[in-house]
Structures are given as C-alpha cells and as structure tokens.
Amino acid sequence: MNKPEKPDQIQVLSPWSEIDPIPLKTPALRLNGLSGKKIGLFANHKRAARPMLEVVEKWMQEKFPDITLEMYIGTETNVPEMWTRGREKFEKWIDDVDGVVLAVGD
C-alpha cells in the first residue's frame, strides 16, 4: 500500500476497489398476466407483514377474480425460510405457485 508523502496527508481509497467474484444471475421471468394464476403471498415473521398482505390479497381478488392466492407465513424472524425447520413446506409452496408477492413487515 502506498504511504502518504507527508505525515499530514491522508490517502483516500475507494471501498469498491475489490469485489467478490460472484457470477451474475438472470432475474426471474415476469408473468405475462395474473389472470388464472396462482400467486403466493409470503409474509415474513414480522407483525405488520400479514396485515399488509391481507390488504394486497383483497385488492388482487377484486382486480383479478379468477386468481388463486395462497398465504405463507415465515417460520422464524430474520432468518431466511430456507434455513428454518419450515424449509420442506416452503419449497413445496414455491413449487406450487406461479409467482410470489413478499411483504417485510417492519
């Protein structure tokens, strides 16, 4: 590392100078519409998530009468569902829906 020439100088470094070599992933494909689809509503384990999704659920049912909605409540607070005892249930739920709306209830 370069040292400043004088003691009263500072060296400014970019925090972006090194990055992890993580390959980029393509975003999930978007649905071409919601009519006739089964949509999952994922509420993390925080207290406001479920009430928010209940409002979304009501709105979606009014706007898309032939839509099917299924709520999933997270198993633990602040832990990805794939790391919890609910993993198998979560994976089955994901496989069974066409798309997901997620709410973080902070």
Overview of the structural elements:
By secondary structure, the chain is of the alpha/beta class. It has a domain at about 40-105. Helix content is about 25%, strand content about 15%. The chain is built from two helices and three strands, in the order βαβαβ. The chain has a three-stranded parallel β-sheet with strand order 2-1-3, sandwiched between helices. β1, α1 and β2 (about 70-75) form a beta-alpha-beta unit. The longest helix is centred in the middle third of the chain and has 15 residues, at about 50-65. The radius of gyration is 22 Å and the shape is elongated. The mean pLDDT is about 90.
Distance from first to last alpha carbon: 42 Å
Cα-atom radius of gyration: 22 Å
Biggest sheet record? 3 strands, parallel
Number of helices: 2
| Strands ordered across the widest β-sheet | 2-1-3
Envelope shape? elongated
As a percent range, the share of helical residues equals 10-25%
* Helical/strand content category: alpha/beta
- Bin the strand percentage: 15-25%
